[in-house]
């Protein structure tokens, strides 16, 4: 019975360790770290731990630093007196996340800013799936994992950020990935577990 107890204990410990076997990595792209200025281009590559995403705007990209929840990546909008360098009606920034489609993404969240009461922003994948941000989501990390899953199903990495009933800024994108165990490792682990189960069954039948 002692060997049976040891086998059962080992099985529980191994089974409990399975979820932790996959190492997770978090990538963060922060767009709210620069003072007010135009990038002078409508497209820019951002890197995080070797993974690149490209932002392409409907006009030149602009870093806005206004404080009070109005800091992030926006757009140059001309020299009008009402210009606030945010993503306004009819404008958008498209993020190409193709470099993430082949990874085991377990979490992805986006943070938007400058959403006032009654204003909304939309984050879409180009195939009809969208996530709507409201004033209650302002400067808060919101999961868009379901949207990313739809993007992956369509084999398209384009994530489109646009204004709804107000202007918005892109503050941060964060992605968590997990390493998938190699098939050989899974086979060896599975074989070991089956062997332990066999030992337990023989002990119980004695």
How would you describe this structure to a colleague?
The structure is a single chain. This protein has 2 domains: 1-22 and 182-206; 23-180, Sandwich (Jelly Rolls), CATH 2.60.120. Helix content is 23%, strand content 36%. The longest helix has 23 residues, at 183-205. It has 206 residues and is α+β, with helices and mostly antiparallel strands. The radius of gyration is 24 Å and the shape is globular. Strands 3-4-7-12-9-10 form a 6-stranded antiparallel sheet. It has a 4-stranded antiparallel sheet with strand order 1-13-8-11, with helices on one face. It contains 3 helices and 13 strands. Strand 5 and strand 6 (71-75) form a beta hairpin.
Mean pLDDT: 83
Uncertain parts: 2-18, 182-189
Per DSSP E runs of 2 or more residues, the count of β-strands stands at: 13
User: Beta fraction of the residues?
Assistant: 35-45%
Which structural class fits the helix and strand makeup? alpha+beta
CATH architecture of the largest domain: Sandwich
How large, in whole angstroms, is the Cα Rg?
A: 24 Å
* Proportion in helices: 10-25%
Q: What is the CATH third-level topology name of the largest domain?
A: Jelly Rolls
Question: What's the SSE pattern?
Answer: HEEEEEEEEEEEHEEH
Figure out the total of helices. 3
> Which term fits the overall shape?
globular
For the record, the count of structural domains works out to 2
Largest sheet: number of strands, sense, barrel closure: 6 strands, antiparallel
Q: Which class of the largest domain in CATH terms?
A: Mainly Beta
- Note the gap between the termini: 10 Å
């Amino acid at each position: 019975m002692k060997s049976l107890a040891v086998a059962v204990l080992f099985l529980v410990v191994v089974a409990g360790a399975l979820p932790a076997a996959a190492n997770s990595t978090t990538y963060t792209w922060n767009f709210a770290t620069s003072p007010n200025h135009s990038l002078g281009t409508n497209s820019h590559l951002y890197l995080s731990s070797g993974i690149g995403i490209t932002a392409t705007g409907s006009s030149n990209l602009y870093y806005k630093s206004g404080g009070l929840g109005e800091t992030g990546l926006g757009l140059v909008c001309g020299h009008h007196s009402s210009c606030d360098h945010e993503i306004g009606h009819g404008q958008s920034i498209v993020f190409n996340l193709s470099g993430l489609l082949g990874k085991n993404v377990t979490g992805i969240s986006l943070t938007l800013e400058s959403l006032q009461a009654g204003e909304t922003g939309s984050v879409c994948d180009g195939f009809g799936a969208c996530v709507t941000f409201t004033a209650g989501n302002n400067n808060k990390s919101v999961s868009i994992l379901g949207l990313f899953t739809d993007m992956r199903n369509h084999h398209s990495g384009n994530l489109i950020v646009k204004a709804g009933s107000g202007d918005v800024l892109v503050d941060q994108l964060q992605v968590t990935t997990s390493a998938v165990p190699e098939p050989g490792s899974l086979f060896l682990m599975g074989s070991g577990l089956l062997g332990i189960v066999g030992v337990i069954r023989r002990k119980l039948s004695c």
